[in-house]
Write a structure and sequence with these properties.
Number of strands: 0
Number of helices: 2
Structural class: mainly alpha
Shape: elongated
Order of helices and strands: HH
């Protein structure tokens, strides 16, 4: 007998699995600018894209 509905309980996906599935299934990309897997130019590109689409982050100082 089941006490929880199907899909509840059991295995919980990690944040990286959710991000990967979002990219593969819906074309949505979630990237942290602090991700150690990215090189400096890649992190800078992510930062610039984020600023272009959503504006500067709170507390971020301009280096222009």
């Amino acid at each position: 007998m089941r006490f929880t509905p199907r899909g509840y309980g059991g295995h919980r996906r990690s944040p990286d699995e959710v991000k990967r599935d979002g990219w593969q299934e819906q074309g949505v990309l979630a990237v942290s600018i602090d991700d150690h897997r990215l090189s400096w130019p890649e992190r800078e590109l992510v930062r610039q894209l984020g600023e272009k689409l959503y504006g500067r982050r709170d507390g971020e100082v301009s280096d222009d």
